[in-house]
Design goal:
Length: 326
């Protein structure tokens, strides 16, 4: 195990790339509204308007400007199954550039800790279950998102090499499907849950049936963005390893897409017909991940119950329909 806990006593300045996205906004909430920041800490949240991190000069300039001591690296080209299937080349190139620029700029300005973000959808397609942190590089990812998956896997390669060569404490977390306020609710390009929420909302408004894409049988673990944000702060402060850690609810909390759709229907009080369009792709059947490592470190962490988190997300979407990303 590569352990790298750093003793950092100087003032802490945390730079969050992708600070305007789903996960970034949740971290903002925990830092600003839940007292997540410590006395004397400075938090800087970036969006793509502050710097295009695909560009090496803009990345260097923004790191020189803020000179962070710690970085949470979230910025990425992100999308659901259907966007991934269309744009594998863009997912590969854009994410490779962003990650290399950010991790190198962090090294250049002497950042002591970086926490980057992988995803459970980067694991091998053919695998045994449950998936754990040791299996990232054990075989090709699902063909639907190989561009995104290989780019994300290279963050782990970068972190290990960076520890070996420079002794840096740069690590990564591996969340399962994230959802919450400020998600991208696009039906074409977004992830399954925000897409479903948007579809149910429209079906309800127009009095039409809800059409769920795919068979409904694939299974997923969902993590509420606010739970993920709380765990991110723990990883930044306490997690001592370079090797990544899966941040997920337990295997027993996995739900089928049909169950997820039913939960959205319930949360929004939709009374119409529900149809499954099996001509649409299902994606990977399951990617059940083990949170045993997380549980070894944090046996008592409580996740928000799925239905409560979903209700809060649906309420947020309805209240912010005009301004929500969709
Ligand atoms: N959502 C999930 O289910 C999920 C699951 C596992 C892992 N993850 C990972 O979690 C991280 C955050 O995802 P998210 O769901 O919060 O994504 P998101 O809502 O789409 O946010 C993406 C963020 O990245 C920024 N960004 C994108 N391209 C950029 C560029 N070229 N230069 C600078 N900033 C750029 C965006 O800035 P703008 O707001 O200005 O566009 C935004 O702040 C990603 O690394 C993703 O791979 C997400």
């Amino acid at each position: 195990m590569m352990n790298c806990q750093s003793d950092h006593n100087a003032p802490v300045r945390v730079l969050v790339t992708g600070g305007s996205g789903l996960v970034g906004r949740a971290i903002q909430h925990v830092v600003r509204e839940e007292g997540g920041a410590k006395e004397g800490e400075e938090w800087i949240f970036l969006s793509s308007k502050d710097a295009n991190l695909m560009n090496v000069d803009q990345t260097r300039a923004i790191f020189e400007k803020h000179r962070p001591t710690h970085v949470i690296h979230l910025a990425a080209m992100v999308g659901g199954l259907f966007k991934n299937m269309k744009y594998n080349l863009d997912f590969w190139r854009n994410n490779i550039y962003i990650n290399d620029n950010v991790l190198q700029a962090a090294h250049d300005v002497g950042v002591v800790k970086v926490v980057s973000c992988l995803s459970t959808c980067i694991f091998p397609d053919k695998t045994t279950y449950p998936i754990d942190e040791t299996m990232i590089h054990n075989g090709p990812p699902h063909e639907s998102n190989f561009g995104y998956a290989y780019a994300k896997r290279m963050i782990d390669v970068h972190n290990r090499a960076c520890f070996q060569q420079h002794g840096h404490c740069y690590t990564a977390v591996i969340p399962t499907n994230v959802f919450g306020p400020h998600d991208n609710f696009s039906i074409e390009d977004g992830h399954v849950l925000p897409g479903l929420i948007h579809k149910v909302y429209i079906a309800q408004k127009e009095g039409k049936p809800l059409v769920v894409w795919g068979s409904g049988t694939p299974r997923r673990q969902f993590i509420y963005s606010l739970d993920l944000a709380r765990l991110f702060l723990w990883v930044l402060r306490e997690y001592p390893e370079v090797d990544p850690i899966i941040l997920s609810v337990g295997e027993e909390d996995e739900v089928s897409i049909k169950e997820a759709a039913d939960a959205v229907v319930e949360a929004l009080g939709f009374k119409g017909e529900v149809v499954h369009d099996t001509s649409k792709a299902d994606g990977q059947f399951k990617k059940t991940a083990s949170n045993a490592k997380l549980r070894r470190y944090l046996p008592d962490f409580t996740f928000t119950p799925f239905k409560q988190a979903l209700k809060e997300t649906c309420d947020w979407f309805v209240a912010n329909y005009d301004s929500a990303r969709k």
